[in-house]
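Why should sequence recovery work at all? Because a backbone constrains its sequence more than one might expect. Tight turns favour small or flexible residues, buried strands favour hydrophobic ones, and helices have their own preferences. The token representation captures these environments compactly. In the example below, the structure is given first.
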């Protein structure tokens, strides 16, 4: 029996009331005017990454167009409409690879156009439906098997896309990872259009919007510790019962706030074999990201958690911690962090590693900030996505590794010390 698909819910409660966002809106627009769309993080670059070379012009044009926050949604929506139209025309002409690629890019642009909508209104739901429709068309034409799936969760279901490697043969049992995006990303970015690092290594991917992430709040599924604890066995159980998946070889990957969510998942489901997280959001209580960084982060997360009242949200965020959870982690754990991490200071990641008793590796990049990009240590040292994929492949194969702290210098040299 298939899992019923939950439907989006329109909520007439308005946007979250975030004091700093309201008071500093003029400043945010001036900062965007001066620094562009990537003022708070390398958003346009991580959205571009899965889309491939053809999308370079799209994102270059969007960076030029965005001069204030109100420009972001329309810039991505216009690009999404153009890509979707190109896909339809290509499909009508039986140019199916061109159609496939353009449906994928359109889905990512539709998803990106949702970012400034921090409420369950008609426009956000419309954009989400366009994103899903374009991605479904991509899945229909993809060079590998892609399925829209719904993960049974309490009395509802989590939205996800399930990918099998291109060379998958019926009857095989392959390893898999659960891919958890960050606060401002979404499951449709979880697998690259070309050269995906997981699929190329024969690893299946369950790309999910977990509780509170992107599509899930539209379905009434919000961020909470209780929900993420409950999501852990739900995600594992769904994957492990798939006939294509080796239940003894399932890992978790998470980026940005997905680093926190992924940590909670493996702490509360011991059957996961490994976790690889990056761009850390591991500060208990999340003070830095919500009170010192761009106020867009706090306003966005208030919607993700279902709060419009800031005082109530401030009490809620105190519950967001790995403390009392990380001690239960048994699987191998890999973490990439920037030495100059501005959203979750490195000392909190160090504290987590001090409590973590499982086999572990912390890779710190000299001078790197949250996005782990744009500095010599990242450019010249081990590539975080590549290292994560190779490390995960080895862990799912059962290979041991030493517990170490790696420090990657500006020359790319890796200095290793034992834990």
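From this structural description, the recovered sequence reads:
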């Amino acid at each position: 029996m298939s899992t019923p698909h939950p439907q989006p819910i329109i909520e007439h409660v308005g946007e979250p009331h975030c004091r700093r966002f309201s008071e500093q809106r003029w400043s945010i627009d001036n900062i965007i005017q001066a620094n562009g769309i990537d003022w708070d993080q390398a958003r346009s670059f991580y959205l571009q990454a899965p889309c491939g070379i053809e999308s370079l012009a799209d994102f270059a044009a969007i960076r030029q167009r965005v001069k204030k926050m109100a420009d972001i949604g329309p810039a991505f929506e216009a690009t999404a409409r153009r890509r979707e139209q190109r896909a339809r025309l290509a499909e009508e002409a039986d140019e199916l690879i061109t159609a496939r690629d353009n449906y994928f890019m359109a889905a990512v642009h539709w998803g990106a156009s949702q970012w400034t909508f921090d409420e369950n209104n008609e426009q956000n739901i419309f954009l989400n439906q366009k994103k899903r429709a374009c991605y479904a068309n991509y899945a229909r034409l993809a060079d590998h098997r892609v399925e829209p799936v719904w993960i049974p969760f309490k009395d509802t279901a989590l939205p996800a896309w399930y990918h099998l490697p291109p060379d998958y043969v019926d009857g095989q049992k392959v390893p898999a990872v659960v891919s958890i995006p960050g606060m401002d990303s979404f499951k449709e970015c979880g697998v690259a259009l070309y050269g995906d690092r997981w699929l190329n290594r024969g690893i299946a991917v369950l790309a999910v919007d977990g509780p509170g992430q992107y599509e899930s709040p539209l379905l009434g599924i919000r961020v909470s510790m209780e929900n993420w604890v409950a999501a852990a066995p739900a995600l594992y159980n769904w994957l492990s019962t798939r006939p294509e998946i080796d239940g003894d070889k399932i890992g978790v990957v998470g980026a940005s706030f997905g680093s926190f969510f992924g940590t909670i998942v493996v702490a509360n489901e011991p059957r996961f074999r490994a976790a690889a997280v990056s761009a850390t959001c591991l500060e208990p209580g999340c003070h830095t990201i919500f009170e010192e960084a761009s106020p867009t982060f706090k306003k966005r997360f208030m919607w993700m958690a279902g709060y419009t009242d800031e005082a109530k949200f401030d009490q809620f965020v105190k519950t967001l911690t790995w403390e009392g959870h990380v001690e239960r982690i048994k699987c191998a754990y890999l973490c990439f962090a920037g030495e100059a991490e501005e959203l979750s200071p490195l000392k909190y990641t160090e504290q987590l590693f001090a409590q973590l008793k499982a086999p572990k590796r912390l890779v710190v990049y000299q001078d790197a900030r949250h996005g782990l990009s744009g500095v010599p240590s990242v450019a010249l040292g081990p590539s975080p996505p590549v290292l994560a994929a190779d490390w995960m492949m080895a862990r799912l194969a059962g290979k041991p590794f030493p517990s170490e702290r790696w420090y990657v210098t500006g020359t790319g040299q890796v200095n290793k010390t034992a834990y």
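A few observations help interpret the result. The chain has two domains: 13-142, 143-284+321-419.
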